[in-house]
Amino acid sequence: MEAETRVEGQADKAPAVSRAVRILDILGEAPGAVTLSELARALGAAKSSTLNVCGALEEGGLIRRTEVGYQLGRRVVELGGDYLRSFDPVLEFYRACAESDVLSAERCQLAVLEGTNVLYLATHVGRAPFRFSAGIGSKYPASITAVGVALLSQLPDDEIAARFADDATRPSFTDRSVTSLAELRRKLAETRERGYSIDHGEVYPGLAGAAVVVPPQSSGEVPIALGASLVESRASESALHVVVDALLEVAARMSNPMNLQPEALHAL
Prior knowledge:
By secondary structure, this protein is an alpha+beta fold. It contains ten helices and eight strands. It has a six-stranded antiparallel sheet. It has a two-stranded antiparallel sheet with strand order 1-2. A hairpin with a 6-residue loop joins strand 6 and strand 7.
């Protein structure tokens, strides 16, 4: 088929597989059934070879043929369920950070709330020019960490007052650490309003941090916070906004495992 146009370029070593993935993409984006002619035209392929690929997909239950064209099949839903059951937020954290243009170079953390502390589940080292950062399994006061404040902002004020009634739950690591209950509540209110938390040297002098909460997939899940640490000298407002945007993008990806990036879909 010399006249056919390869979907993935001349270097494509598996054109049938690439066409199969593209067909699934097209059907997934279409509002209704798609005819064989429309699929062939979108692929830049002959109808005969497109029909062969559709036949294999139909036999596998990935698509189904109707009177007006092709649609996605039930097997796609079943595979999606299998993927969701195998989804691991920690592994997805590492994968998403590595694939992020921004966060791949930063030191990032994944943490959960444990009483008045945060427990770090995972860390992405990146290329940050500093060594001070929480390691896996470390516990830090929630009141002064970006990930901790992000998680605490999800709690009502009466719960905050009960948890942090004792002064010992609000320790000071630096002269910038927020230690009073009133200051903590003010910081949480600001975090709720802006949608993310900021730490300016409250844990380590010279380091800044930002964090967001990963929206849970179900009501019974434990909330997780995703944060990044930067050298304060380069943590300008614009730089923090770039990092926060990247954190929000990764958080959205982690909260919805089906929200894969386009390049990730074609890598499957």
